[in-house]
């Protein structure tokens, strides 16, 4: 059964209440255009470089304004509402980068905690250590929905194809990749990674992104996200995309029958084989390895 999917592009700031209001406005716009599944970006609720300031406004899942607003929107609009992720305070003092999928009754159908932590040093001097504050997830899930089998990932997870392959083998037809990609890495790899995950698994990929420069409460803090939210089909065709900055709503028709068609043409999921890897020496003294 085909359905209309929307990816909502945002430029979240440091105030979760303001971000919740922006999310609600954009989700309503998506539904007005016919979307029945709506996805928001990674860290919908807050992008805040100052971790002390961030902790001061974080809430647990029960009291989080983004979780509450997502549930209310799903119930009011009768949609499947996917909060790509938001920061959730955990009992041990750390944080979960957690996505939520709400059903049309407003109840949580799925939670997904980002598995791969963005611990990198970039050429432009940016340094990120997500593992210093966030607790990594350890469980991937494929959720059976009335319109498709859906898999979940968040941002940096897209660089780990084994996660997507495991979900595809488990039957996923649609993969979700809400993100807050940096401008530098996005320019280099965002589109090619999304299209690669779609092509190699024969699935749709829906990726709502953060876009533009983000403020820290007083002024811009220099963080710039890449934007370019995308919806990609199983053949790697970009069905819809947004620009580099600012809010946007993109929509595409998703037909799971296209997944079967792609698998019939390129049956690599069925043709995969187990294999071992042996590391051997190259050159050896007096000649080459046999």
From TrEMBL:
The keyword Hydrolase applies. InterPro entries: C-N_Hydrolase, C-N_Hydrolase_sf, Nit1/2_C-N_Hydrolase, UPF0012_CS. Residues 3-256 form the CN hydrolase domain. Keywords: Hydrolase. One of its GO terms (molecular function) is hydrolase activity, acting on carbon-nitrogen (but not peptide) bonds, in linear amides. It comes from the Bacteria. The keyword Cell wall biogenesis/degradation does not apply. It holds the Pfam family CN_hydrolase. Belongs to the carbon-nitrogen hydrolase superfamily. NIT1/NIT2 family. This is Carbon-nitrogen hydrolase family protein. It comes from Rhizobium phaseoli. The lineage of its organism: Bacteria, Pseudomonadati, Pseudomonadota, Alphaproteobacteria, Hyphomicrobiales.
């Amino acid at each position: 059964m085909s359905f209309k999917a929307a990816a909502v592009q945002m430029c979240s700031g440091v105030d979760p209440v303001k971000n919740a209001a922006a999310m609600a406005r954009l989700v309503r716009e998506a539904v007005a255009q016919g979307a029945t599944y709506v996805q928001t970006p990674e860290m919908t609720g807050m992008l805040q470089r100052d971790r002390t300031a961030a902790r001061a406004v974080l809430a647990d899942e029960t009291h989080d304004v983004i979780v509450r607003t997502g549930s209310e929107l799903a119930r009011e609009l009768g949609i499947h509402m996917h909060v790509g992720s938001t920061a959730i305070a955990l009992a041990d003092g750390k944080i979960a980068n957690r996505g939520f999928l709400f059903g049309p009754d407003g109840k949580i159908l799925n939670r997904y905690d980002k598995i791969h932590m963005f611990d990198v040093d970039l050429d432009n001097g940016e340094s990120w250590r997500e593992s210093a504050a966030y607790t990594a997830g350890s469980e991937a899930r494929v959720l059976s929905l009335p319109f498709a089998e859906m898999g979940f990932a968040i941002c940096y997870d897209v660089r780990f194809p084994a996660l997507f392959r495991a979900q595809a083998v488990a039957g996923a037809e649609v993969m979700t990749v809400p993100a807050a990609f940096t401008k530098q890495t996005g320019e280099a790899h965002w589109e090619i990674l999304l299209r690669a995950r779609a092509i190699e698994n024969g699935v749709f990929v829906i990726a709502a992104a953060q876009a533009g420069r983000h403020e820290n409460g007083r002024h811009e803090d220099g963080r710039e996200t890449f934007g370019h939210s995308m919806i990609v089909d199983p053949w790697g065709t970009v069905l819809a995309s947004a620009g580099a900055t600012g809010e946007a709503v993109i929509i595409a028709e998703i037909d799971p029958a296209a997944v079967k068609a792609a698998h019939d043409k390129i049956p690599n999921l069925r043709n995969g084989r187990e294999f071992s890897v042996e590391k051997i020496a190259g050159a050896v003294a007096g000649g080459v390895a046999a």
